């Protein structure tokens, strides 16, 4: 495991270029999710997409850093779906850092931060077409919450919503 991995708060104005560079390295996931390589619109969505009935200030964005290098990004929405929930909207890692304990370290940091804020539940949705991610989240203790099938209004992906009780 890489011990030098830290989470650093990031924002759209200062970190969009680094986030796009990271997303391009992790284009396998972005292409699975949106059907094409990541672009400026993909990064804009990462920084600005707000869950229903919430305000932009509910969003927390972090760069996953190894020294000065951004090796991943994560976005969390506080208060979705319930006031004491955190919703992990995206955890994206550079493929060169997958399978090395980075995701586990990031999740440990998120769990610590959530407990400090008295958050009761972490939730996220995994693309059904991404079995490797589903295996990772299950291995980390997340359990099935519900299925979220694609609808005519959605992006066409079936998802599996997982939860983790803190």
From TrEMBL:
<keyword id="KW-0012">Acyltransferase</keyword>
<dbReference type="GO" id="GO:0016747">
    <property type="term" value="F:acyltransferase activity, transferring groups other than amino-acyl groups"/>
</dbReference>
<keyword id="KW-0614">Plasmid</keyword>
<dbReference type="InterPro" id="IPR016181">
    <property type="entry name" value="Acyl_CoA_acyltransferase"/>
</dbReference>
<dbReference type="InterPro" id="IPR000182">
    <property type="entry name" value="GNAT_dom"/>
</dbReference>
<keyword id="KW-0808">Transferase</keyword>
<feature type="domain" description="N-acetyltransferase">
    <location>
        <begin position="5"/>
        <end position="166"/>
    </location>
</feature>
<dbReference type="InterPro" id="IPR050832">
    <property type="entry name" value="Bact_Acetyltransf"/>
</dbReference>
<protein>
    <submittedName>
        <fullName>Acetyltransferase</fullName>
    </submittedName>
</protein>
<dbReference type="Pfam" id="PF00583">
    <property type="entry name" value="Acetyltransf_1"/>
</dbReference>
